[in-house]
């Protein structure tokens, strides 16, 4: 063939080759075999290329090796193809006949394959991404070992059908392969092609050309769609791994964890077999290939590991792997090829980032000689060894691949630990070296050495060991980096010399030398293949029987080591290989074993155990013997029982009651936390939730597809009353209606969910809460479902429904995820913000005990604690005899899955126990102590209760087919033993409801007093008190609650591979429980009285417990396992009694006391009255125990008073008469044995239900899980907590800190959010790609709390309080007070009698007298104003409040907001978004600041005000030019009649109420155009502008920052008058008369919320009969009505009533009054030009102004049929003035008496305006100045030109000094005092002389300073009639700079 290099011929092989050649020629008909030497040459070439394979990666384009002995520098000889025939097709991928050969094109076409031919895929260099299909005679293809391929070729073209190509060269030309080197079948025929489940042709395993199979690193991605893989595999196929995956790329997984979710199935070899059909024919010769196809395809591997190995590119004679040049040529070669490969090779795969365990789709890169797996390995070893690939090359396995499992987990772990921690990466990765490979391996050996014989290695442990080691070795560098910036020079290496590869085997051997051969080290010289072969040899020879782990090290390469670790221990290997199965594969495997009858051998084995023959024969025999006897005894007992019931009426069992629905304090606390989180979402500035726009709440609860959970949730919803409270249903709702609100996530869910979405879309004003209960279930991404739509339709349903676009975007849907195990929702990609997580509160929250004293929650931590208490049997136990039998049988039946074995053993144990309890005492030897205890208590418990209440035993069988088997077997045994009426067996399946027998149904109805004939229990809670075994199946519990009668939780069958935190806690959550206790539980108190503490029911002794296993050898349980002091594996056999239990109705006597607490401890907790009773309800026990012999008095003290059923037992000292023989040494009475078959005599034992309620269930676990749960790390955290949190997530990095015991739930959440990432199959996997910066969904919350603690009740309560809050948001508290001083009006003819007038008649109105008396209830404590119309007696003035009542809350009423209400800043609705300036389409409104100045003579200076005018409001103003000087505010004309706008500008003075002030008048004005100005103080301008960006602001000058409301009113009025003048001037130029300009403004309080109108229906003008009704109207309606009044400009002030729920008929009857107006006034600024507000006033300034207006002769009109409602606002307003001391450290409270002081005194000065101090002092202490006036209403105080409130017990008479003013006639009055306040020049001496005073009347003159005080006294000649003393001068308690007011008091002479 022209090859100069023929390889090195080995003489020993010559005969072999010759023999093969002759044999081939004999077999071949048409083809001539190749010469012997050519064959030898090929062999030689293949051997060498096998050595080279490590460095050669799949570069098809590269020149193939081997063209003669050319040197490396020589160019390759190009291969000359024959030119193709004329006119034929030369297109790549098509044959010369023009037919398409590409696999992608013809995969689904039928292809005719002749017998003996196989379809294979050829690679063309010009089409690297495609495979070309051809048919090749299989004789010319290699076998499994890469041998026995005939030389030569025979193939057909599948395109054009041309047959009989005898040369591959010719064939490659026909296929247009266009090769550059000589065509060889070994090089171009790459893959077998196989049909997948859909019948499509896909790429299969590599063709194992000897040596060349290592050349290709092509990832066979399309194999994923074949049946070799479980269907979900390709949900996210990763790109190839880089050399060193960074943190976050490759997860570390526990060796024992089933790889969650489809994207990470590390298929074991058996999983890979599958029913692969090759080329449509199931060729038996190809079966071995199918079996080991895994070595070519699915064995996972990271792909950059060979870059540092391999020979130079061109071979030299004599090169060997040991030669030093081996490493030199490898580096660039590997690197270059890898890069090329990554860019081109995987185009058929979706590029989905780097993910972890999905790397299964890559072949394990093999090297060196293949290793053959021995044929009978499993048979000899009794377990499949699990081989973990470590460092470097892993050899190629062939042969019996079914019997080994290969996993890349350890490799991944090593790779992760090689990557340097992210925390230190920023300092430069070069300085801190990762842990070396040698050190990793050595640490792994140390770890394996210290594992106990029954422990399984965990990846998490190993990762932490690596992390600790790395940290310790680099401690100095790490500290250095933490303190100083990184140095450019790397620090010197530490003193500890690194382990070299030469030392490694020796050190590893040394480490393993102490472990009694548990770890065996094999050192190889050439390659791992040698070590693996050695290991298989040792296994076959049985020399590794005691070895659990074999570590194979090959340190021959100088640069690096090769290693792998094989787990050969039967126990460990079984658990690890089974843990690599996914849940689906596990189910499939178990199903297969059941269906194919593999388990029959197990049944046969059990039947041989029984000495008396088959158990079934024994059962039948027992059945026949006892049939008559049992039925008669049963009848007798039932007759007796019913008789005893009839005589006494109803049966007596005080303990049975189903708990009524109620809300506990902790549930309310959680509901309130949920509500506050929802409010905080609404309050945030993001506008994601507008609570103000919702009127009601609706909800939908989504739950997993479990019928029981569904019914349970319906029950909760029904009984919580939430539907009635939310107004969703009426009183008489049906179950069908309730079902609308609970959605079971099954196939029918989508329809119901669509209607929910439609409903939410149609009702934008309803807030929909979507509650996702049990939210950790089904987190599979919908993308996975889309890929495999033919799979289970419910896969990915949660993602499809709850994460759909409509839910995410709907502004009225809030999603609440509720779960006990939130970990999978707490990843780096979660949609839930950490601020939206609500964690269940601890028992003490903010110092409040949330849990009632008689309830204690028992969850996982309490169960674990019980194992540590030491003085009692724990609640968590394992069953060592059961475990021993399972282990023994596992060895005997290595091919059976351990779940099958465990189930059969447990069923066998229950069978034997039931037989033993029924009288076949010999069967006790065939069960365990634990199972016997369970069975005895189950069967005997109903006999201790008059009603037959019993215990529930939960038997957890996750696998449904096994559960069915267990159910059938146990039901059969129960029937044979005639125990059908003793206890029920229930098969609990998620997909179906509960089925129970008629007898038990009748009992339940009787206990629960149910009359309905059709009733059936639908939840497990309704099985309360039913003696039963509940076989609970389904891979995961779905949140089903169990009744309080649950006594035993048998979890011995849970999958030992569930070593994931969620799965583990979920199983243990079944036993979570609220324990009832009358006395508070103390540590140890509950556990010391456990049912089985004092005795263990009939059991076997150690000597009897022999288990016949392997023929003659009988394995005894090891003494270690029997050591009970700390092992907690249940009770000691020495405590058991051998008496037959069938004779006993009670429980067995105490043979010995367990090591218990001291007497002192016992005194502290109630002592049990019986071995199996708990002493917490002695009253009940006393009633039950009647006349049973001489009494024993047990006297003890309770831990505290406790509620007892018997009123006689209320004291702390209990003296209980118990009539039992006192035979027990400990004071515990023992029951005597009862006759077996006699009538059932009711034991006066306590009902077992009562006992069950008072203690948590006992939980039995598999030993592996028990160890995992009870072992703790250094911080005391249970090991289970540090496991991978969930199957669907992976660790982001192995460089993560450990969880800590002290972490709160919040800290744990943050930990998982930092250190876990979702797998590609997780629904959150792609959430970060959505473009959101934060990635959190704003309306999504997560509630997490322990299982069975009451989360459902909490979230239903949340719905209720949310609904109440929304209603509350639409309600306000408005003042509801009746008018005061009504009785002081005189009945006369001065009322307005035109009852039907819509407007006042001006002439009539002028005749009405002014009513001086204040009727507004807010002035109840103000001074009464006297007029000559009244003759007030001293006692006339109502009932005055006592001083202490002054601060009593004013009366309010809660009112629903109408559509015409005014709103504060919390209201957002679509209509008024634009009005408020928050509309998303508009930018935040721009505003401009405008100065506006005018002069005012009284202030003696120019006033400068500032307007802030938003752009949208500029049309209300006139500017000198656009954007120029503000000139005036536009005013309409009096004659305008438009109904489109309100004419009067509204001014609202406000302070301290930027959030709560009711400034949104959009709805109140019914959308009408209006001008609204907020009047604010300068220092509050910014905050008001922020909250009300679209409102006009009038900013008061800074001098008014501390002024009161009088200043605001004063400036509003003055500004408005000035503006009126400007507008008159401006419009006069337009020809408009000055009097036509609208002169009114509105001054409104900031708390006016709604306006009402009274409609009066009078039966006639004068009639006394009239009716009226009140309705809510818009402010627009009222304003337009008032503005349309005839002659309106003649009125100075117009107002309305303050609303009251009980208006007097008088004010409603009279449409108009001439009296005081308050709160909302319409002011005529033109008429009141000369009447000013007092700018100094803080209180009563409106009364003062009203009096001034009236005295000026102007009209005040109140429209009585309009009323304003005022909202109670607790912040701001006049409350914002606090009077404090100027000396800040003075702790004294300031009382009003201290508001004034003597001038020049050393009194503490106060930080408050002088005017405020004056007003407050006069309100509370004016009697000091006016002693004669106190309660002396006929002699009021004369107040000149002002009204000041002197307190409710002093009356004042107001007079004006202005000329021509209207004053009352004072000639009749003798005044008791005179008040002169800042009087001006109008008050003269002559004016005062008109008034008469009582002798001793007092005078008070108030002036701005002392000099004006003296001037006033002189000017008014006061000393003529008044006597002054020096000490009668006072001042307000202000410092001089605060300008105090001065007073002078005197007495009338």
Classification by helices and strands: alpha/beta
The helicity comes to 25-40%
Give average pLDDT, whole number.
76
Q: How many beta-strand runs?
A: 61
Q: Describe the global form.
A: elongated
What is the number of helical segments per DSSP (H or I, 4+ residues)?
53
What is the alpha-carbon Rg in Å?
A: 48 Å
Strand content: 15-25%
Low-confidence spans: pLDDT under 50, at least 5 residues?
A: 1-12, 29-76, 212-366, 426-430, 484-495, 631-650, 1079-1245, 1329-1333, 1434-1447
Distance between the termini: 150 Å
Largest sheet: 12 strands, mixed
Report on the structure:
This protein has 1949 residues and is of the alpha/beta class. It has 53 helices and 61 strands. The strands form 15 sheets. Strands 39, 40, 43, 44, 45, 46, 47, 48, 49, 50, 51 and 52 form a 12-stranded mixed beta sheet that branches. The chain has an 8-stranded mixed beta sheet with strand order 37-57-56-58-59-61-60-54. The longest helix is centred in the first third of the chain and has 33 residues, at 615-647.
């Amino acid at each position: 063939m022209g090859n100069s290099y023929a390889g090195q011929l080995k003489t020993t092989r010559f005969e072999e080759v010759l023999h093969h050649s002759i044999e081939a020629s004999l077999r071949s008909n048409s083809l001539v075999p190749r010469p012997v030497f050519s064959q030898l040459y090929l062999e030689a070439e293949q051997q060498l290329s096998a050595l080279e394979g490590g460095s050669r990666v799949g570069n098809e384009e590269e020149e193939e090796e081997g063209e003669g002995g050319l040197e490396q520098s020589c160019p390759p000889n190009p291969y000359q193809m024959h030119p193709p025939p004329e006119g034929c097709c030369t297109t790549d991928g098509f044959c010369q006949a023009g037919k398409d050969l590409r696999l992608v094109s013809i995969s689904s076409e039928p292809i005719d394959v002749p017998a003996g031919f196989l379809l294979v895929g050829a690679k063309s260099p010009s089409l690297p991404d495609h495979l070309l299909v051809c048919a090749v005679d299989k004789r010319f293809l290699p076998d499994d070992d890469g041998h026995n391929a005939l030389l030569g070729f025979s193939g057909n073209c599948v395109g054009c059908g041309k047959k009989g190509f005898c040369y591959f060269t010719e064939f490659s030309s026909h296929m247009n392969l266009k090769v550059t080197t000589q065509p060889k079948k070994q090089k171009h025929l790459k893959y077998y092609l196989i049909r997948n489940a859909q019948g499509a042709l896909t790429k299969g395993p590599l063709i194992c050309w000897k040596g060349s199979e290592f050349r290709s690193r092509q990832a066979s991605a399309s194999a994923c769609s074949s049946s070799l893989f479980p269907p979900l595999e390709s949900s996210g196929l990763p790109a190839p791994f880089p050399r060193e995956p960074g943190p976050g790329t490759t997860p570390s997984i526990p060796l024992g964890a089933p790889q969650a979710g489809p994207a990470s199935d590390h298929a074991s070899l058996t999983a890979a077999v599958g029913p692969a059909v090759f080329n449509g024919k199931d060729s038996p010769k190809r079966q071995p290939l199918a079996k080991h196809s895994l070595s070519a395809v699915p064995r996972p591997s990271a792909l950059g590991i060979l870059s540092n190995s391999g020979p130079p590119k061109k071979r030299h004679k004599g090169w060997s792997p040991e030669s030093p040049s081996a490493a030199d040529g490898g580096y660039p070669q590997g690197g270059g090829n890898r890069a090329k490969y990554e860019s081109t090779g995987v185009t058929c795969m979706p590029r989905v980032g780097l993910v972890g365990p999905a790397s299964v789709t890559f072949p394990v890169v093999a090297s060196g000689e293949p290793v053959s797996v021995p044929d009978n390995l499993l048979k000899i070893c009794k377990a499949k060894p699990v081989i973990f690939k470590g460092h470097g090359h892993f050899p190629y396995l062939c042969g019996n691949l079914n019997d080994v499992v290969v996993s890349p987990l350890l490799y991944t772990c090593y790779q992760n630990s090689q990557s340097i921690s992210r925390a230190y990466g920023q300092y430069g990765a070069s300085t801190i070296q990762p842990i070396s490979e040698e050190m990793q391996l050595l640490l792994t050996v140390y770890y394996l050495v210290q594992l106990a014989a029954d422990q399984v290695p965990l990846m998490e442990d190993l990762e932490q060991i690596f992390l600790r080691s790395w940290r310790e070795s680099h401690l100095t560098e790490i500290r250095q980096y933490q303190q100083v910036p990184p140095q450019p020079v790397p620090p010197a290496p530490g003193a500890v010399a690194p382990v070299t590869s030469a030392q490694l085997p020796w050190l590893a051997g040394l480490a393993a030398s102490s472990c009694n051969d548990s770890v065996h080290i094999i050192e190889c010289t050439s390659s791992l293949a040698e070590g693996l072969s050695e290991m298989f040899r040792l296994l076959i020879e049985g020399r590794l029987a005691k070895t659990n782990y074999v570590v194979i090290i090959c340190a021959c390469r100088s640069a690096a080591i090769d290693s792998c670790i094989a787990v050969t221990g039967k126990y460990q290997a079984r658990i690890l290989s089974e843990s690599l199965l996914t849940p689906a594969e596990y189910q499939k495997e178990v199903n297969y074993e059941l269906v194919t009858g593999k388990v029959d051998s197990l049944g046969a084995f059990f039947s041989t155990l029984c000495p008396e023959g088959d158990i079934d024969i024994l059962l039948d025999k027992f059945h026949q013997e006892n049939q008559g006897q049992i039925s008669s005894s049963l009848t007798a007992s039932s007759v007796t029982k019913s008789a005893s019931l009839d005589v006494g009426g109803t049966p007596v069992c005080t303990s049975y009651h189903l708990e009524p629905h109620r809300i506990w304090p902790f549930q309310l606390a959680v509901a309130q936390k949920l509500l506050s989180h929802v409010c905080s979402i609404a309050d945030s500035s993001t506008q994601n939730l507008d609570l103000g726009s919702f009127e009601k709440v609706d909800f939908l609860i989504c739950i997993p597809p479990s019928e029981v959970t569904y019914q349970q949730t319906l029950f909760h919803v029904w009984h919580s009353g939430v539907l009635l409270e939310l107004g969703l249903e009426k009183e008489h709702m049906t179950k069908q209606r309730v079902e609308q609100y609970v959605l079971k996530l099954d196939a029918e869910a989508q329809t119901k969910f669509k209607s929910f979405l439609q409903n939410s879309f149609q009702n934008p004003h309803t807030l929909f809460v979507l509650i996702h209960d049990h939210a950790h279930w089904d987190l599979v991404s919908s993308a996975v479902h889309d890929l495999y739509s033919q799979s289970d339709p419910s896969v990915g349903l949660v993602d499809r429904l709850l994460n759909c676009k409509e839910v995410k975007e709907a502004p009225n849907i809030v999603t609440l995820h509720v779960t006990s195990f939130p970990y999978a929702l707490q990843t780096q990609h979660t949609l839930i913000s950490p601020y939206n997580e609500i964690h269940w509160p601890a028992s003490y929250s903010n110092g409040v005990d949330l849990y009632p004293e008689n309830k204690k929650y028992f969850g996982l931590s309490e169960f674990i604690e019980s194992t540590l208490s030491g003085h009692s049997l724990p609640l968590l136990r394992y069953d060592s005899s059961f475990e021993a039998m399972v282990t023994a049988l596992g060895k005997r039946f290595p091919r059976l899955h351990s779940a099958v074995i465990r189930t059969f053993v447990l069923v066998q144990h229950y069978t034997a126990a039931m037989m033993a309890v029924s009288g076949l005492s010999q069967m006790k030897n065939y069960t365990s102590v634990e199972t016997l205890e369970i069975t005895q208590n189950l069967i005997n418990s109903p006999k201790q209760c008059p009603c037959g209440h019993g215990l529930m035993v939960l038997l957890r069988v996750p696998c449904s087919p096994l559960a069915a088997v267990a159910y059938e077997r146990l039901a059969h045994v129960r029937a044979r033993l005639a125990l059908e009426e003793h206890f029920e067996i229930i098969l609990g399946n998620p997909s179906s409801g509960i089925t129970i027998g008629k007898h038990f149904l009748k009992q339940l109805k009787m206990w629960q007093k149910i009359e309905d004939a059709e009733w059936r229990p639908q939840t497990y809670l309704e099985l309360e008190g039913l003696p039963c075994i509940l076989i609970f199946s389904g891979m995961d519990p779905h949140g089903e609650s169990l009744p309080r009668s649950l006594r035993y939780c048998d979890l011995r069958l849970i999958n030992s591979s569930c070593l994931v935190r969620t799965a583990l806690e979920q199983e243990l959550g079944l036993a979570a429980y609220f324990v009832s206790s009358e006395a508070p539980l103390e540590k140890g108190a509950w556990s010391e009285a456990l049912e089985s503490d004092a005795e263990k029911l009939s059991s076997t002794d150690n000597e009897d417990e022999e288990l016949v296993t392997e023929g003659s050898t009988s394995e005894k349980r090891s003494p270690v396992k029997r050591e009970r002091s700390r092992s907690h594996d249940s009770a000691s056999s020495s405590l058991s009694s051998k008496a037959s239990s069938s004779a006993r109705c009670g429980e067995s006597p105490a043979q010995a006391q367990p090591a218990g607490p001291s007497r002192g401890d016992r005194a502290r907790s109630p002592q049990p009255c019986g071995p199996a009773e708990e002493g917490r309800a002695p009253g009940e026990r006393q009633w039950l125990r009647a006349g049973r012999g001489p009494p024993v008095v047990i006297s003890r003290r309770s831990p505290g008073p406790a509620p007892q059923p018997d009123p006689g037992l209320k004291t702390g000292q209990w003296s209980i008469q118990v009539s039992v023989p006192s035979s027990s040494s400990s004071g515990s009475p023992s029951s005597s044995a009862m006759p077996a078959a006699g009538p059932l005599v009711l034991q006066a034992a306590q009902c077992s239900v009562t006992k069950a309620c008072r203690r948590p269930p006992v939980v039995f676990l598999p030993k592996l899980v028990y160890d995992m749960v009870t072992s703790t790390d250094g911080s005391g955290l249970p090991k289970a907590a540090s496991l991978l949190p969930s199957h669907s997530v992976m660790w982001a990095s192995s460089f993560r800190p450990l969880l800590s015991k002290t972490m709160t739930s919040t800290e744990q959440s943050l930990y998982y959010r930092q250190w876990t990432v979702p797998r590609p199959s997780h629904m959150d996997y792609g959430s970060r790609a959505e473009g959101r910066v934060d990635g959190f969904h704003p309306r999504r919350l997560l509630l997490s709390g322990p299982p069975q603690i009451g989360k459902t009740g909490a979230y239903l309560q949340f719905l209720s309080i949310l609904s109440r809050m929304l209603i509350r948001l639409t309600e306000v508290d408005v003042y509801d007070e009746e008018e005061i001083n009504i009785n002081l009006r005189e009945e006369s003819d001065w009322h307005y009698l035109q009852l039907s007038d819509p407007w006042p008649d001006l002439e009539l109105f002028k005749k009405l007298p002014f009513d001086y008396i204040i009727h507004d209830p807010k002035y109840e404590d103000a001074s009464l104003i006297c007029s000559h119309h009244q003759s007030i007696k001293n006692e006339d003035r109502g009932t005055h409040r006592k001083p202490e009542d002054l601060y009593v809350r004013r009366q309010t009423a809660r009112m629903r907001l109408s559509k015409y209400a005014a709103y504060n800043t919390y209201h957002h609705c679509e209509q008024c978004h634009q009005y408020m300036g928050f509309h998303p389409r508009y930018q935040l409104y721009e505003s401009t600041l405008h100065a506006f100045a005018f002069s005012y003579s009284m202030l003696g200076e120019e006033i400068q005000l500032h307007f802030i005018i938003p752009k949208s409001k500029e049309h209300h103003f006139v500017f000198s030019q656009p954007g120029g000087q503000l000139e005036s505010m536009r005013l309409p004309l009096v004659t305008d009649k438009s109904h489109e706008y309100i004419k009067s500008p509204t001014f609202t003075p406000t302070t301290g109420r930027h959030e709560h002030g009711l400034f949104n008048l959009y709805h109140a004005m019914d959308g009408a155009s209006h001008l609204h100005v907020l009047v604010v103080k300068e220092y509050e301008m910014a905050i008001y502008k922020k909250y009300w960006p679209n409102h006009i602001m009038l900013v008061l000058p800074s001098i008014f920052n501390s002024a009161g409301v009088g200043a605001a009113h004063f400036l509003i009025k003055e500004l408005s008058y000035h503006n009126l003048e400007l507008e008159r001037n401006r419009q006069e130029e337009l020809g408009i008369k000055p009097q036509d300009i609208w002169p009114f403004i509105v001054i409104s309080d900031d708390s006016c919320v709604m306006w009402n109108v009274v409609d009066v229906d009078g039966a006639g003008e004068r009639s006394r009969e009239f009716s009226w009704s009140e309705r809510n109207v818009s402010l627009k309606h009222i304003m337009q009505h008032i503005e349309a009044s005839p002659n309106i400009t003649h009125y100075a002030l117009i107002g309305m009533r303050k609303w009251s729920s009980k208006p007097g008929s008088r004010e409603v009857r009279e449409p108009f009054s001439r009296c005081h107006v308050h709160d909302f006034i319409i002011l005529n600024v033109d008429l009141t030009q000369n009447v000013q507000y007092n700018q100094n006033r803080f209180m009563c300034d409106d009364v003062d102004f009203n009096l001034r207006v009236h005295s000026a002769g102007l009209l005040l009109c109140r429209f009585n049929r309009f009323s304003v409602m005022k909202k109670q606002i607790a912040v701001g307003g006049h409350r914002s003035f606090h009077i404090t001391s100027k000396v800040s450290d003075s702790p004294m409270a300031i009382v009003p008496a201290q508001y004034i002081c003597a001038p020049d005194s050393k009194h503490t000065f106060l930080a408050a305006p002088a005017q405020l101090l004056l007003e407050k002092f006069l309100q509370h202490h004016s009697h000091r100045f006016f002693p004669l006036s106190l309660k002396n209403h006929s002699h009021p105080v004369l107040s000149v030109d002002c009204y000041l409130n002197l307190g409710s017990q002093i009356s004042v008479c107001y007079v004006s000094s202005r000329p021509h003013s209207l004053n009352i006639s004072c000639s009749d009055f003798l005044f008791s005092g005179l008040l002169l306040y800042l009087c001006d020049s109008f008050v003269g001496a002559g004016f005062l002389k008109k008034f008469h005073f009582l002798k001793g009347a007092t005078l008070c003159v108030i002036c701005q300073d002392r000099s004006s005080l003296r001037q006033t006294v002189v000017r008014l000649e006061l000393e003529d009639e008044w006597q002054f003393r020096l000490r009668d001068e006072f001042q307000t308690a202000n410092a001089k700079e605060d300008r105090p007011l001065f007073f002078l008091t005197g007495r009338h002479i």
